[in-house]
Write a structure and sequence with these properties.
By secondary structure, this protein is α/β, with parallel strands linked by helices. The chain has a single domain, classed as Nucleoside phosphorylase domain (Rossmann fold), CATH 3.40.50.1580. The protein contains four helices and eight strands.
């Protein structure tokens, strides 16, 4: 059993954290994030999962931020009776964990900040991890480093900034005393 598991999409986002036994990389996208999260919960029975990673900024354009509300950017099923960003035919799918910013998760790299779904940042994994944790009654915390402005320069900026959030992740881990060798 591991008390706390740390999830990051790619090793490139935090290469120095890979030496710790409770740090795992999910791969990119919601399916990879959900399947990895579910497998780790089944295998290690954690009390808490923390997600670190990069995000494109929509209303915030720099810095390290706690995220507490999660929506699905690619869930646009209003004709089925659901709100933008919510899964149709499900109850309790608004993932709102308290004070913090909103992350829109989807299986695309955002290069146009004019989203239909309100969000402060965009990523490709957080909603999936949050939902799996919610369904398994595992505490979930999420912190994102804004690597780009989700615009035409997003990919170039992300490539330049991808590992620059690691210092923030390490500091948060030290504050929470959660890294395991």
């Amino acid at each position: 059993m591991m008390e706390t598991i740390i999830l990051i999409a790619l090793k490139e986002e935090a290469p120095n954290l890979s030496k710790h036994s409770n740090v795992f990389y999910t791969g990119v996208g919601k399916v990879n994030a959900a399947s990895t999260t579910a497998m780790l919960i089944e295998r290690h029975k954690p009390k808490r999962i923390i997600n670190f990673g990069t995000a494109g900024g929509i209303t915030v354009h720099s810095g390290f931020h706690q995220v507490s509300k999660f929506v699905q950017r690619d869930m646009v099923c209003c004709e089925l009776g659901s709100q933008l960003g919510q899964t149709p035919f499900e109850d309790g799918v608004v993932l709102d964990l308290g004070t913090g910013i909103t992350c829109s998760t989807g299986d695309n790299f955002v290069t146009d900040p004019n989203l239909q779904i309100p969000a402060d940042v965009v990523d490709m994994e957080a909603y999936a991890i949050a939902k799996v944790c919610n369904k398994n009654n595992v505490e979930f915390l999420c912190y994102k480093f804004v690597s780009d402005s989700a615009n035409d320069d997003a990919l170039t900026d992300w490539n330049t900034q991808v590992s620059k959030g690691e210092t923030h992740y390490i500091n948060k881990c030290a504050e929470l005393n959660i890294l395991r060798d």
